Amino acid sequence: MQTHKSDKTLHMAITDHGGTLTAYQKVWPTIDSAAYVFHGAQVIGDVVIGAGTSIWHNAVIRGDVCHIRIGSNSNVQDGSVIHVSSNKYPTLIGDHVLIAHMVMLHGCTLHDYAFVGMGAIVLDNTVIEENGMLAAGGMLTPGKTIAANELWGGRPAKFMRMLRDDEIAKNRSMALHYRKIAEQHAYDGRGEVNPSPYPVLTLRK
């Protein structure tokens, strides 16, 4: 577990990668030693984050009035917000889940390999099943379920179609892609050289 409690008076801590952890009612986040919580990210209260998961810059994960659980090799991208419903709906996120930039999750459940597109909103008592996808900008309203392999979109979100096998394979591959990017950022943050830089950048001038 990453602790690095830097200020016991303020009940705050800094992770290995510069993110901020804060206790709530004396409950600290539990961060696997192989997870990445990058600088600017805030993780508060009853939150558990698994190995290989990356929490990116300026994301906020607030487990104060209920708990949040995030599995292994998932990613919460820049500017996303994850919260809960008071003593009613936790937010539960499985393994290999993709949460894109500026997403809002509130009291919902995302199964393994779920994908929430950029700027989407997932509200209380909703479920996205394995390989299910909410398209960018969508809003999944309370009580709705995106079944396995389904694509939903719009505000309010509605079923659009089933995902093709190649789309599912691409979405699944993105979890490993983000883990490799996180590893590269970790090398850079330590001022070290990655022996296998990722990705190989070809468009630089």
What does this structure look like?
- This protein is mostly beta strands and 205 residues long.
- The protein has one domain (5-189): Hexapeptide repeat proteins (UDP N-Acetylglucosamine Acyltransferase, domain 1, 3 Solenoid), CATH 2.160.10.
- 12% of the residues lie in helices and 34% in strands.
- Strands 1, 2, 3, 4, 6, 8, 10, 11, 13, 14, 16, 17, 19 and 20 form a 14-stranded mixed beta sheet that branches. Strands 5-7-9-12-15-18-21-22 form an eight-stranded mixed beta sheet.
- It is flat, with a radius of gyration of 17 Å.
- It starts with a strand and ends in a 16-residue tail after the last helix.
What is the level-2 CATH architecture name? 3 Solenoid
Highest-level CATH class? Mainly Beta
Largest sheet properties: 14 strands, mixed
Radius of gyration: 17 Å
Our count of domains comes out at 1
The unreliable regions are none
Q: What oligomeric state is this?
A: single chain
Please name the CATH topology: UDP N-Acetylglucosamine Acyltransferase, domain 1
Q: How many distinct beta strands?
A: 22
Strand content: 25-35%
Q: Please bin the fraction of helical residues.
A: 10-25%
Secondary-structure element pattern, one letter each: EEEEEEEEEEEEEEEEEEEEEEH
First-to-last CA distance: 41 Å
